[in-house]
Amino acid sequence: NPGKERYNRPQKVCLCPFLPPQPLEVSTCLYVVQHPAEESRVLRTVPLLAACLPQGKCNVIIGRRFNEEKHPELAAVCRDSRTLILYPGPNSQNLEELVKYQEVGTVKHNVIIIDGTWSQAKNMFLKNSMFHLPKQVQLNRTLSSQYVIRTQPSNICLSTLECAAVALSILEQNDDIQEVLLRPLKALCSFQLQHGAQIHHSKEHLLKNGMYDKPMPKNKRKIKRMEKLVTDHNICPR
């Protein structure tokens, strides 16, 4: 279709010049488990990620609930000892630490990333027991999100593309990967801002600067979580 480009965006905001000329060569295989609501969002980062990687290296699986019977391939990936799930928490290991103690190039990992809002991702992780089988990892690199056209809970929250970019650069031991994958995201944000989009500050930023204009939640647990956003610089919303 001449009106569309590799990542299915209108030509007037064509991002092809910002994509790598050839898909990036990576040994890691990504499995993006996507909440159905993400499909209808206009400003998604996963299509950009898929456009930068070879076919078969970025697999998108849509749904809320997953089981062995309906998703045998995903179940097999979850049982594979080489599979990691990118999900922060008390049981997560720092990905860079994990890679440091492995011989370079000996393991070709699978990485599962949950794509949705923070509350959707938390729900999907907790309610799908197969996601508890892989080794749980998190990113401890400091990276300020470039995805300023969609609101994040805190300043350290990253989009799915950014998570994948950091994870791949660590696993492939190649920092250029991060730069190449973030290039189209920066261009997308730049295009949107030039055409009238507003910068979306994180909820943390809004609360700390007295700019949060929505009604405060009545649920005590939610209030506590929002208070933590203001006081704890390293909070993980999940």
Automatic annotation (TrEMBL):
Enzyme class, UniProt record, top EC level: transferase
A GO molecular-function descriptor: tRNA-uridine aminocarboxypropyltransferase activity
Ranges for domain DTW: 4-197
Keywords, alphabetical: S-adenosyl-L-methionine, Transferase, tRNA processing
Keyword Hydrolase on entry: no
Record's keyword annotation contains S-adenosyl-L-methionine: yes
Catalytic activity annotation: a uridine in tRNA + S-adenosyl-L-methionine = a 3-[(3S)-3-amino-3-carboxypropyl]uridine in tRNA + S-methyl-5'-thioadenosine + H(+)
Family matches, as InterPro entries: DTW, DTWD2/TAPT
TM region(s), chain numbering: none
Gene Ontology biological process terms in this record: tRNA processing
Entry EC number(s): 2.5.1.25
PANTHER family reported for this sequence: TRNA-URIDINE AMINOCARBOXYPROPYLTRANSFERASE 2
Family: Belongs to the TDD superfamily. DTWD2 family.
Protein name, entry field: tRNA-uridine aminocarboxypropyltransferase
Species of origin: Seriola dumerili (Greater amberjack)
